[in-house]
Amino acid sequence: MEMPSRQLIPTLMPEWTPSSHQSYKTADDSASPPITPTSQVSSFDSSLSQMKPTYSTIIEENIDTILDRIRPFVKKITASEQNKKTINQYTLGASAGSGQFGHVRKAYSSTLNKVVAIKIIPKKPWNAQQYSMNQVMRQIQLWKSKGKITKNMSGNEAMRLMNIGKCRWEIYAVSRLRDSVHVVRLIECLDSPFSESIWIVSDWCNLGELQWKRDNYGDILPQWQRLVPFKCSVSTFSKKILRDMTKGLQYLHSQGCIHRDIKPSNILLDEIENVAKISDFGCCIFTPQLLPFKSANFEECFQRELNKIVGTPAFIAPELCHLGNSKRDFVTDGFKLDIWSLGVTLYCLLYNELPFSGDNEFDTYHKIMEAPLSLKVNGSTLNDLIIKRLLEKDATLRIGIQDLTKIILPDPMDQPEHPKDIDQDILSKIKPTRSEGPVRRFFGKLITKKSKKKTLENVKDNSFGSANSKATAPVYIDADSQEEAFSSTVLRSSPNSSDYCSSLEEEVVQVTDFLNTFCDSKGSANILHVKNDKRNTEMKVEKSDSSSHSSFKVPTPIKALIRLKNSPVENRNKSYDNRFSDELTSPSKKSAKEKHRVYNPEPKKLAHSGNIINFKAYINSADKDRQEMVEDVRTYLNFADNGQA
Ligand SMILES: Nc1ncnc2c1ncn2[C@@H]1O[C@H](COP(=O)(O)OP(=O)(O)OP(=O)(O)O)[C@@H](O)[C@H]1O
Fold first, then answer.
1. Of 91, 171, 252, 306, which sits most exposed with the smallest number of CB within 10 A?
2. Within a 10 A sphere around the Cβ of 225, how many other Cβ atoms?
3. What is the SS3 string spanning 358-381?
4. Pairing verdict, β 267-270 and 197-203
5. Residue 491 near residue 374 (C-beta atoms within 8 A)
6. How do residues 181-240 score in pLDDT, each as one tens digit?
């Protein structure tokens, strides 16, 4: 009897499924009607012919080079069990957690004789909102215009191919970054024309992702203790992370790689190698000079790509937060984006809170651009290095990776005991040399004159980036003796708990909810069971939800909000009513809200992302105030789509 032929699923290696670029049908695809380019996307036809090349289209044009690079790492799935206990030489173990795109499991490799991590990424994204309809249609049109597809293609199939393309890029990136202990090392990838998922095998980091959220500022998390067993404190642990991440970013810099999503959940800790490692290269880009292909417009496209908002809102650098309200590109040095995000990460460790956290993305961006941190300068070297040099809002004044390396890399044991011994040359590196120039702010329209005035006054009063400002402490990274002074300042400047909780809650609402991540859906993801491979004891690591801020892996985050089905009017009233009743009933909340009011627009304006959810109704609204906002949102969407105002 003739066996029915199995459907081939597109793979990382196109040659494994020769028809994968062609249209084909699978059972699940029939559920969604195919997108017919002639009827539904005709509006793209004219724009497509004028479509400018982009960084990603240049990458796609050079896909053969990418494939040649990843080919040695991609192995065929030859054996797997139905019950998913084994795949090839790997025995699968406990779940380590989930991200937006995949699920990570611990596994044992019988050939390497060691524990590894396997990220399992469904080829067909489980979250349909991962790619917007626009993106999918545009992509189909692009493939058609380039002759890569000849028949109509369903949205599901297109999304699958886009997802596979995304995996190829990530695998390409990590395959180029295998020579540093500070980057999670790729071992290999598994795939087959019959597999619904791509399996990416990498080194196991037994302590999991970097945790920073704790009940009390002074608490030392078990994970920290394991990485810094001797004299572990907030300060010594932060120094360890600073040092390891500086080495990691220095390595990325040498390879021309800008990560664009540095944050605690993308930093994994390994007790065996005693090191913190950078992971998750899904958002990264390489400088054209260090890519093995040339294109006439590459540099220009790279600059445009650099100016797109990619990353996680709370960790995005101020030069990206202008939201396109400028005729010129703000980001010229992409590596400084990662330095800023590292600064935010270290701030979280030091202060047990995010430095900039708003009621919605706009508010967060506004705070990132405007809210000063000068009150946090306290004379402690580590603290002031982070506050003054890593979290310097002016990217041209922000410390670069080379200078940071010079400061950090000497072995801590060689550091002089007293600040006065510090080399004057190093000292000068912590001092900003000129003040931040005036920037026309997009958010001028979003805030009341009064609040803006107050904000700017704060910036002025507290500016530590001015030419007159003095560095209050020398660079002295391992000054343990300064920890006391630092701790007390932290305690003094810490917000009260209700204030603090409210800001955190607001933060995690931002993107994770909209993108419908499946994280935690099974409850098990909250507790990460980590086998201590070194000592062979089982330990539990509490996974801090608050440390896991999802990044925009889609280029237009606001569009994700718009797709939700809420009434803006209802929402606005509701949030306003809640706000009002909070103020009546809770004095502590009231003070927190009052503090927020400095930066918050009045409730009629864009006080919450929910206000713009029903975008169509919003656009058509006759309300003048709202019409003004529509222009802002349009500008933003245009910027998010095209990288242009
Ligand atoms: N190499 C590894 N070793 C140990 N644990 C890992 C490893 N890689 C990932 N994990 C764990 O699995 C979790 C999910 O990882 P993943 O990279 O999918 O998601 P994420 O980075 O948190 O989110 P996203 O991809 O959405 O940004 C991580 O938070 C981490 O705890």
1. 91
2. 12
3. CCCHHHHHHHHHHCCCHHHCCCCH
4. unpaired
5. no
6. 999 999 999 999 999 999 999 999 999 999 999 999 889 999 999 999 999 999 999 999
Tracing tokens 């000079």 back to the chain, one arrives at 289
CA distances 303 to 321, 331, 601, Å, are 16, 8, 32
Half-sphere exposure of 149 (CA within 13 A, CB side): 20
Query: Does the pLDDT of residue 622 top 80, yes or no?
Result: no
The ligand 1 site (C-beta within 6 Å) comprises 96-102, 104, 117, 119, 184, 202-205, 208-209, 265-266, 268, 279-280, 528, 548, 550-551
Residue 519 Cα to ligand 1 midpoint, Å, equals 11
What pLDDT shows up at residue 548? Answer: 40
Measure 167 CA to ligand 1 centroid, in angstroms: 15
Taking all residues of the chain, what is their mean pLDDT, rounded to a whole number? 68
Helical residues (DSSP H) of 255-351, grouped into ranges = 298-306, 335-351
Q: pTM of the prediction?
A: 0.67
Tokens linked to 227: 């990485």
Six token digits for residue 80: 């797997």
Instruction: Kindly list the strands in the beta sheet with 197-203, ordered across the sheet, starting from the edge strand earlier in the chain.
Output: 74-76, 186-191, 197-203, 114-122, 103-109, 90-98, 86-87
The pLDDT of residue 368 is above 70: yes
Residue closest by Cα to atom 19 of ligand 1:
99
Task: Dump pLDDT digits (tens) for 93-134.
Answer: 999 998 888 899 999 999 999 999 999 999 988 776 677 777
What secondary structure, in 3-state letters, does 490-541 show? HHHHCCCHHHHHHHHHHHHHCCHHHHCCCCCCCCHHHEEEEEECCCCEEEEE
Tens of pLDDT, residues 471-501: 323 333 543 433 332 222 222 222 222 222 2
pLDDT at position 276: 98
Ligand 1 centre distance from Cα of residue 610 (Å): 29
Listed residue (101, 105, 78) closest to 208, CA to CA: 105
> From the candidates 261, 384, 478, 632, which is the catalytic residue?
261
Cα 254 to Cα 249: distance, rounded to the nearest angstrom: 9
Protein residue with least CA distance to atom 18, ligand 1:
99
Question: Does the pLDDT value for residue 594 go beyond 80?
Answer: no
Residue 341's pLDDT is what?
98
Atom of ligand 1 nearest to the CA of 102: 18
Is 461 a catalytic site residue?
Answer: no
Atom 5 of ligand 1, nearest CA residue: 208
Residue nearest to atom 13 of ligand 1 (CA): 97
